[in-house]
Amino acid sequence: MLVTTYLAIIFLLALCVGLEITARRLTPPQSTPTALANPAFRRFQSIFLRAYLLALWADWLQGPYLYKLYRHYSFLESQIAILYVCGLASCVLFAPFSGWLPQALGRRQTCLLFCLSYSACCLTKLSRDYFVLIVGRVLGGLSTSLLTTSFEAWYVYRHVDVHDFPKEWIPSTFTKAATWNHGLAVGAGLVANLLAEWLHLGPVAPFLLAVPCLLCCGWVVLTDWGKEEARFSRSCHEGLRCLMSDRRVMLLGGVQALFESVLYIFVFLWTPVLDPHGPPLGIVFSCLMAASMAGSLLYRLATSTRYRLQPGHVLCLAVLMAFFSLFMLTFSTAPGQPRPHESFLAFLLLELACGLYFPAVSFLQGRVIPEEKRAGVLAWFRLPLNLLACLGLLALHGEVSGTGGGEGGSGTRHMFGGCAIMMLAALMAVVSLFTLGRNDTDLRLEGTRGEGEMY
């Protein structure tokens, strides 16, 4: 596995470079570079991205060695499953409030709260006490909920209401953030591996490195972001009303809940599946993130003027690929006959599907969910998402406990089988969505009949 992992990261990074060059060649010059030519906008964008990318970097640093840290502290898989469930349950608890807190406390103050809570979460990893680690997972759930809402809420509010920039410029900032995000994820795996394994500092080292990154993020927010008054909004209530009144939104939320809850379960399972076979976990994590980056670049190619695939088609393909990868895993994780190379390949295929999925679903959300209600709607989307993931991990915990607290055995295989069924349900929801909106121009890229590019 060691040689396979290093060969995989070299191949995937080369693939990403090749896809990026090809995508740039196929992308025509922007016809309206007004945003990039505006110095005030570029300065505002830079201030936002400095803080946001630091927050994302700190978040990614914690990905490769979380499970390994708990195993290092000699906890059983069933106990680790409960720790993960506590984090997901915290997300469930705070999800309805994550869209409301920026309005009640102020967006800037909520971003500062994120920096403090996530720093405290990282510091709890120094303790071997199970209760302290549970508190850390609760803080991590709160922080994750705030990361996915607060920074975006601050940016959109300042962009539109304070600086009065055109709304059409908003995607350029988040496209740039998404591009950087993939590179940060790959780099975080390499840095985490350097600290934990090459320098022999142990699995807690990446968490400690995340703390100064979060403090720097908080300093940027505190000094560079302008003050604002808290303003109460009924975004959660309005989001629920939008969700219930539009069947397209309901189906899209079902797709997101099913697909992304499987990803949460995958985050728990990939380490115990591969770690017994000795691969460097940080490099494995970088491979997974590079596969996701390749999927994102393939999305750009597929929806370019040359190939003209619709995001709905790409979404169907992504869900189908994810189903196939999970189906593979039900065979490669058979008890007593593990096939780590096949499992690694299936994980890479799942991450490639994720790279296709996220830009496609983001495009569709932007088309069917009004901008002013988006934060509230997405907060409601995360409720069933985290609940499904909690139920899955609790089921795994019950099966592992029933077999004496071992390394999962058939429980892992059964969990992948359940995830495959959930992905099949997500595929049915995608088909229903596009059957409902077969002639709906909101679900299609503009310019597929000669009207120009989507941007």
From TrEMBL:
Keyword set, alphabetical order: Cell membrane, Ion transport, Membrane, Signal, Transmembrane, Transmembrane helix, Transport
Topology with respect to the bilayer: Multi-pass membrane protein
Subcellular location: Cell membrane
Protein name: Molybdate-anion transporter
GO molecular function: molybdate ion transmembrane transporter activity
Transmembrane segments: 47-67, 79-101, 138-157, 204-222, 249-270, 282-302, 314-332, 344-364, 376-395, 415-436
Protein role: Mediates high-affinity intracellular uptake of the rare oligo-element molybdenum.
Cellular component, GO annotation: plasma membrane
Cross-referenced InterPro entries: MFS_trans_sf, MOT2/MFSD5
Organism listed in the record: Seriola lalandi dorsalis
GO terms under biological process: monoatomic ion transport
Signal peptide: 1-18
Taxonomic superkingdom: Eukaryota
Stored Gene3D superfamilies: MFS general substrate transporter like domains (1.20.1250.20)
Family recorded in the similarity comment: Belongs to the major facilitator superfamily.
